[in-house]
Amino acid sequence: MDNPALSQEDGTELRKRPVNNGEAPHVEVETKGIKLQRNLGLISGTSIIVGTIIGSGIFISPKGVLQETGSVGLSLVVWAAGGMLSLMGALSYAELGTLITKSGGEYPYMMAAMGRVVAYLFAWTKIIVLTPSSMAIICLTFAEYVMSLMEFCGEPQIPKKMIAALAMITLAIVNSWDTKLAASVQVFFTGAKLIALVIIVIGGLVWLGKGEVETLQKGFEGSTNSPSGVALAFYDALWAYDGWNNLNYITEELKNPYVNLPRANVLGVLLVTVIYVLANISYLAVLGTEGLLNSSAVALEWGEVVLGKRVAVIMPLFVMCSTFGAANGSLFAGVRTLYVAARENQFPEVLSYVNARRLTPIPCIIFTTILALLMLIPGDIGSLIDFFSFAAWMFYALAIVSLIILRFTMKNEHRPIKVFILFPIIFLLCSLYLVVAPIIQDPRVEFLYAFLFIVGGLVFYVPLVHFRIHKGCFDPVTLFVQLFMEVGPSPYVPDFE
């Protein structure tokens, strides 16, 4: 046979060159069709959304909304309205994700609507700060609850950070090993946190059935008259819903994204909204307004009252599951921005390579994990996240602006879903407010530093991306990574089979 090709399951081909003049046969390995697989269905996609939205906040201290609104009724209205606003955002992102079926979240939408520079600045901020810092703070919370179950004296920083680092490395291994395994982990831990919240909801309903309705009967008594107070309550509630857009980061790995992306976005946000409202009703019914406002770990105190101290120990276990699942979802989705940006040659291309056997983006997973581990070194990274929080809402706003622009520049393109224009406009206005409000209410120089960091990405963009003065400099590194990790290029190929 001439040039026989042996096809492998890993997407490679072994081609044997014919023997000429007594020359020994030579086998060449060609990578063909290496790409991330579409392993995520509706259930795993919905689990990504629910699992990353629900972290530790609903279990620990959901008191910010009640504190700012001043009444039971208004606080529940804000929780429900926050869910509806998130749903508007999720519907808007469903239109974007089915119009431009690339992974990377906001990155490809900004690239198509606003050009390479704006898309790069988003990727720069997301990759270097937002994803690794978010993963670090979630893993630190996980470590705190692991320590609460161990008989440590006090809270020594080194053990806590070691536990957080071990969690990060474990998640990196899981996500590098197999996408299906990472998706299964997400489904399992999402199920665990939903079981905990169902217990809380049912316990609250039982409490109400016993006639403990005094707190809820207060209704809107004591509601704040301050517009800024209501705005701050919305700010707290909307942050509790953050993560509703994560499925758009992995569109290329979603089966039938035209159908499953809109369905998962809607199902995930609606499910979380119902759970958040019912969980808060349960907390209020059991603990009352004073108990809720004075509690530092609401779920634990709720458990002690309803379940008893012996059984209440399960609540920290459920919080551990919740935070571990949120960290997995954050890593799973967050690294795809780096994967897509590197594929567009805005970061070293080798970071977009995919393992030929496991079909996972190992280089970008390792890179992100290393950044997250470095984030553990400072004493407190909470302030870092606070000052970059306005950046997240700024990029949400730019994504919605991209949707409006694409309505004109790609008006003839096929749109499986086209949302009522009022939904993205309302979401855009709220996003702009959440960008400006914290700066006006508490102007600090750290916001300027955060803005300068975002714009500072141009220092690397101009020479390395625009003029590409580094051309050829990374070739030895690329070759080493390819050989060591068995990875190869993964070009974008539309395929919805």
From TrEMBL:
It comes from the Eukaryota. It catalyses: L-lysine(out) + L-arginine(in) = L-lysine(in) + L-arginine(out); L-phenylalanine(out) + L-arginine(in) = L-phenylalanine(in) + L-arginine(out); L-leucine(out) + L-arginine(in) = L-leucine(in) + L-arginine(out); L-histidine(out) + L-arginine(in) = L-histidine(in) + L-arginine(out). Belongs to the amino acid-polyamine-organocation (APC) superfamily. It is found in: Apical cell membrane. Its main location: membrane. GO terms for molecular function: L-amino acid transmembrane transporter activity. Pfam families: AA_permease_2 (PF13520). InterPro entries: AA/rel_permease1, AminoAcid_Transporter. One of its GO terms (cellular component) is apical plasma membrane. It comes from Magallana gigas (Pacific oyster). It is a multi-pass membrane protein. This is b(0,+)-type amino acid transporter 1. Residues 1-23 are annotated as: Disordered. Keywords: Cell membrane, Disulfide bond, Membrane, Phosphoprotein, Transmembrane, Transmembrane helix, Transport. The chain crosses the membrane at residues 40-60, 72-94, 129-150, 183-208, 264-286, 313-339, 359-378, 390-408, 420-441, 447-465.
